[in-house]
Amino acid sequence: MSDTQGKCQQNTGTCRVVDCANQPTDIPEYADISGLGVLLGFLIAAYLVIIFLIGYYVFAFDPRLDIFRAEDDATSIAPTINIVDDFVLRKVHHVLRKTRKIPPFSYLWSEDPDKGKEFHKVMNQCVYALVDSQSITGIAILVSGYYSLHCGVSSYHWYLIVYLAWFASLTHLSGLTFLRHHLHNHQGARQWRLFCMFVLLVLLAVALFPTAHFDLTYIDYNDGNIIDQGNTGKDFRLTDHAVCYFKIKEEPYGILPDRWDSMVVSMALLVYGYLIRALKLFRGPRGTWYRFKRKWKDSCQQFLRWMASIPSDRWPAWLRFACGAVFLKPCVLFYLLLRGLLHYYVSMASEVSFFPWIVSEPGPC
């Protein structure tokens, strides 16, 4: 037994000796990771974020106002109004206005501007607090997991650590989209958020690496054993030390090709999500997007006008009809569909509708 392992056992009392050649056969209890209170803490916080984001979108968000306006400015109009948000909110508000006399809608729909500002600030503070808690807990559980690696934390607990950290990062990123106006007027808070985002991104990206070894489809969750022993290379066990799966050159801990693809895709989605949310916090990328959208729109419309001018009056009627039905109309339909999808992609409605679905889906492993 090495000095490091001896100190680990002496300091913690429950710390395991890490020996990749002799793996344990049972999963030890680790309430700080797999305890019911920990799981409920992440789940409750995530679904509270969903509730507050929906409430913020329905009662406080105004697609006509510029996101990057001053703190108390309620007159700056956005350069362009997202047609999806405008349509959805007009329909939702039309229905909810009929409930003005029913509490608490009577307060939410009050014509008093002071009450409207107060409600807006309350929603901001609620989302702000929940987003911060998810960022801190995500970093904390990853740091705890890294610290426990040299004490032989099991693959099962490492799987839960990555899952919960992924869960926390999604909650954090979804809330940041709704805090753009607040963070624009508080530059110091925005810089700290970006720093925490980067720390969580690095920790989670590294933590995803061992999942390239995990093949959970062959695991019996009752005892952690492999269901089909005849699968070559599928020798992963939930009871194994997670630190052993950081060793990519030592057998039998080789990377599984199918799980490698899943891990790479998870990392790519993680980096993409963080990059997009970070860019949305600044005014410059929005201007670049508007200029690109305008040029793309003008180019597409110019191409469609050119296609519409191709059929000549000298052509037979059936040929002009065939040209329009086979080429022009499908191109117009594709252009309108793609334009609608782009409007939906950059809308707040997509954030609200996409996040609850992501929360209910399994994590990166």
TrEMBL record:
Keywords: Membrane, Transmembrane, Transmembrane helix
Transmembrane segments: 38-59, 126-146, 158-179, 191-212, 263-282, 317-338
Protein's UniProt keywords contain Transmembrane: yes
InterPro entries: Elsinochrome_Biosynth-Asso (IPR053018)
Keyword DNA damage recorded: no
Full protein name: Uncharacterized protein
Organism expressing this protein natively: Rhypophila decipiens
